[in-house]
Amino acid sequence: MLTLPIEYYLTLSAVIFIIGTIGVLTRRNAIIIFMCIELMLNSVNLTLVAFSQYMGDMAGQIMVLLVMTVAAAEAAVGLAIVLALFRNKQTVYVDEVNVLKW
Amino acid sequence: MIEQYIPVIAMIVTGILFGVVSVKAHEILGPQRPNKSKETPYESGMEPVASAHERFSVKFYLVAMLFILFDIEIVFMYPWAASFRELGGFALWAMLLFVVTLFVGYIYIVKKKALKWD
Amino acid sequence: MTQTDLLAGLAIEIVSIFALIIMLTDALVERSTRLCETLSIVGLLGGLAASAYAHLTMPGQTAFNGMIVVGGMSTLYDAIFCGAGIMTVLLAREYLTRVGGMFDEFYTLLMMSIAGMMLMGHSADSMPMFVGLEVMSICFYVMAGLMRNKLSSNEAALKYFLLGAFASGFLLYGIALVYGSVGSTAYSAIAAKALSTQFPTLFWVGIGMMIIGLGFKVAAFPFHQWAPDVYHGAPTVVTGFMSTAGKAAAFSGFVGFIAPTMASGVPGLEKAKVILALLAVGSMLVGNITALAQTNVKRMLAYSSVAHAGYLMIGLAAGNAAGWTGITYYLVAYLFMQIGAFAVVGILERENGGNLTVDDYRGLARRRPGLALVMSLFMFSLTGIPPFAGFFGKYYLFNAAIQADLTWLAIVGVVSSVISVWFYLGLVVIMYFREPLGEMEGGEASISSRTALALSIIGTLLIGLIPQAIINIAAR
Known about the structure:
The complex is a heterotrimer of chains A (102), B (118) and C (476). Chain A contains 3 helices and no strands. Chain A is mostly helical. The mean pLDDT of chain A is 88. In chain C, a hairpin with a 4-residue loop joins strand 1 and strand 2 (68-69). In chain C, 78% of the residues lie in helices and 1% in strands. Chains in contact: A-B, A-C, B-C.
């Protein structure tokens, strides 16, 4: 079977992580920002699985399961927060939410 | 190295070509006589009643959120189920504890009427 | 896993089980607020007792395959989290009922966040550290948005959530890279294998990412922008809890992986120290100078908490045993004075978010002499005036910096403390020597709020009188 060198996986996940980061910094829609954060978390999952496979160590894969659960919990809470905001203000754009300024 | 990918590349190229060729061939070869009933989403089916960009009831989001939470727990069940013979009695108790914890959450959402649909 | 494991983690288990019991009580019992309140306090006292037991019987022992460690500093962390929890429970009902955020879920969230913090404080591995941090953070996101009909609270929750999750991404990527370079997630492996790693660059990038991620969580410069907005928008009792226990938990995670890194002797340590020192300097100066310009007391305390994160980072930059115990001591001291200050702010705050500006505190000494006196005490302690707790906290941290040949850092710390005199004591002057602008309708503090205030006062004075006792526990 063909195995790719670990650098390929690391590069791919680094690229995905950077795409996610740029998305968080440039987007204004709270839901899309959150999707970019999920992208970052999943790129980390890729890194962890790649290292885990490379070193023959299971800890990385267990970590992936934990990360997935955390991401799901964050998704639920995040959606609830966006929903609460939408009920009060009818918007999901973060730059329109600015009562807290000095 | 790259030679091993040739079948994959051939597959991708064939796939793209098939899609593009069949759509374009239809446009070029077929007769084009549009009328009102032909332009509806379901040509000989239901009449569309309203715009598809409608807002959903907030209940959908609530159920979706709860679904995500309970759904993801299967990632812990699966590794256990795949190797529970080797893991033995202790893992069974640990899993029971986990399920009981989830069940507390379930009682909570039922009692808070999060699943009530009206 | 054996009985000893379960016994070692008993404190965390008790708090988690009580969180579940409170959740069930909330769902099954009508009008359960008082019952939930009692259960929370019982659970937190139980957690404290279990932690003390573990400290006395198995200090320094690891459990759950080296995932958690018991005794020593982790005992003090437990004390901070449970203590902050107890004071918050005592303050919460009166305040939340007034501002319209009284949901019984608050107690469940509080207990769960404390369980997460304790997991962080006990962790000897980045895996439980990450899980604990997330359990805590997810509860905090909800707690910040507890006043769900208020736009300010919604906004605080949204900002906290988006930036917190973003920071978690960085922390996690850091953990993954460190895992890849040393081959394990355990802190002991970092200390043992960092020197011989084949990928030193990967290791340092990973540590850097972890510093960024946790820097967000402790609100250190330049990752502090969320703090003033979140601390301002969240309910005041929650702000008090987040800015003390939350910061303490994040610092416990910080110390967890920085300490073995510093001990590993891996090349590049000096640069890491300089970077941490620069973060400390930035936090202290930016926090204190921006706090000068604030007209809202809550925002002022928020910016000053950025400065306090800076003082604590001096301990990280020093990177020696004195630094770690200094951080722990400072966190205990900070717990009492900061929660106390926010308690006073919460008692004075009105339903619509009124009575929060510095002008509203004019002449407070005449109208509410008791509260003004208590607030002054906390302000003196936060400034770092002897013999209060805050002074000894700073003393130990600056001392650690001098031991680590970072005398310049200690000097910057002293200078920024002097800057903070301006707004901390400025508030005292306003309370005692300025004429009130208008009538201040007074909310009477309830018995439980008074108890919480009394606890903070006793803590602030006592910790200042017996600093050595705390240091001894931490060093065990």
